[in-house]
Design a protein that fits this description.
Blueprint lengths: L5 H28 L3 E6 L12 H21 L4 E8 L5 H14 L3 H6 L10 H12 L10 E4 L8
Parallel strand pairs: 1-2, 2-3
């Protein structure tokens, strides 16, 4: 962790935590006036802790998770739901970048990495992440708040 420059720590906090906080503060007045309001943050990594070269990323996402949990408590009386969706290995440009960092640090191939995903030994598709998010912002999830929903194929939880 001491190899990560302070500027990278600050950049990661800015992108992966503070951006969500700023957006939330900007839209909160409109959410308070809406009939059905919901906030869904996208976190990271299933239950696998990010260490080594991704420590700053893991710390920023942990801050986001904590913020979301406390915000859910604060906004529940106003009828505003707050949840988190935490993806595992999803095949997207951003997911590929994180996975490449992990596999490089571990000295393994993509095939070895995906073999650790209990459900079908593959990465998830972007629509498999989008569907739970769409559900959480819908009225079908009107009684769900304060939870972190893992979309990981069992990666982290079952491995």
């Amino acid at each position: 962790m001491d190899q990560i420059p302070e500027a990278e720590w600050l950049d990661s906090l800015d992108i992966n935590f503070l951006a969500g906080l700023r957006i939330t503060h900007a839209v909160l007045p409109a959410l308070r006036e809406s009939v059905l309001s919901s906030i869904v943050y996208v976190s990271a990594g299933g239950l696998t802790p990010f260490g080594g070269p991704l420590s700053h990323y893991g710390a920023a996402k942990a801050a986001l998770n904590n913020y979301a949990k406390n915000l859910a408590k604060e906004l529940a009386p106003a009828g505003i739901r707050v949840n988190v969706v935490t993806p595992g290995p999803i095949i997207t440009p951003g997911g590929d970048e994180v996975r490449n960092t992990i596999t490089s640090a571990m000295g393994i191939t993509d095939e070895q990495f995906f073999a650790g995903v209990p459900l079908q030994g593959r990465g998830g598709r972007s629509e498999e992440l989008a569907e739970p998010i769409a559900f959480l912002v819908s009225d079908r999830a009107s009684y769900i708040t304060g939870h972190n929903h893992f979309v990981t194929g069992g990666w982290g939880e079952l491995a």
